[in-house]
Design a protein that fits this description.
The complex is a heterodimer. Chain A is mainly α. In chain A, about 85% of the residues lie in helices and about 0% in strands. Chain A has one domain. In chain A, helix 1 runs antiparallel to helix 2. The chains are: A mainly alpha, B mainly alpha.
Chain lengths: ~90, ~160
């Protein structure tokens, strides 16, 4: 049972990492990176490191995602349109 | 960043302060439970990013006072160094309020401070410092891109694409 849960979380991590690279829209990519961080925090919790899991959830999923979106906002203002996405 | 819809703003009003209370809980019980100064400080700093996402940057910058967060950083660092120096007749970082195991088992040592001594107080110092520092990072990051910002103040523009 525990092995199955491990496998599911690891597959989710790989999927989120793949989508972070695959999306053309950079905002979707930043959100996929946030989902990656959240799955990572879940994996840390399963591996019995709740200390690291709290840090990963607070820094990775919340703060760094917002900082990415702020940076994306600056790029979008320069490029005028399509959310900073590359066309 | 533009303000989001009224649903998001009301949700932010309800839940934002609970984040601060949860972060303070993680900081204060840092020596006994998972978490600690850094983790709790990061959770407290999430409060400001929450407001930034929900209410937009222009209104947030009219609310916050950067000198307050700078003073939080300075106060946390001074508290940490001061607590380290207070153990000085013995050594730097000496745990001067801890009690021995026998004295704790004999009774009279309850609460947050006695089981770990200065470690709980240093957790609180680190929590104050990290909360101020990470909030300052987000504020200055937003002020840096504000040079290019042209959106009008306070209008509701839907999701921020």
């Amino acid at each position: 049972m525990m092995q199955l849960l491990h496998l599911c979380v690891l597959v989710l991590i790989v999927l989120a990492g793949f989508f972070a690279i695959w999306f053309r829209d950079l905002l979707s990519s930043a959100l996929a990176l946030g989902a990656f961080s959240l799955c990572m925090a879940l994996e840390f919790y399963i591996l019995q490191a709740p200390d690291v899991a709290i840090a990963e959830a607070a820094i990775g999923a919340a703060l760094s995602t917002v900082i990415y979106i702020i940076a994306l906002r600056a790029c979008g203002q320069i490029r005028k349109g399509n959310g900073g996405g590359v066309k | 960043m533009n303000p989001l819809s009224v649903v998001v703003r009301k949700g932010c009003d309800i839940f934002a302060w609970f984040m601060v209370v949860f972060g303070a809980n993680v900081i204060i019980h840092g020596d006994l439970t998972p978490g600690g100064g850094f983790q709790g400080g990061a959770i407290v700093a999430t409060f400001l990013t929450f407001l930034l996402v929900a209410y937009g940057g222009n209104r947030l910058l009219s609310w916050v006072n950067e000198r307050f967060y700078t003073s939080l950083v300075g106060f946390g660092l001074l508290l940490f160094i001061g607590l380290a120096f207070m153990g000085f007749p013995t050594s730097f970082f000496y745990n001067f309020v801890s009690v021995t195991h026998e004295a704790a088992m004999a009774g009279g040592a309850h609460g947050i401070i006695p089981p770990s001594g200065t470690i709980a107080l240093m957790d609180i110092a680190v929590g104050i410092e990290v909360a101020g520092g990470l909030s300052l990072i987000v504020i200055y990051m937003f002020k840096g891109i504000r040079l290019y910002e042209t959106s009008p103040v306070g209008t509701e523009c839907g999701h921020d694409r």
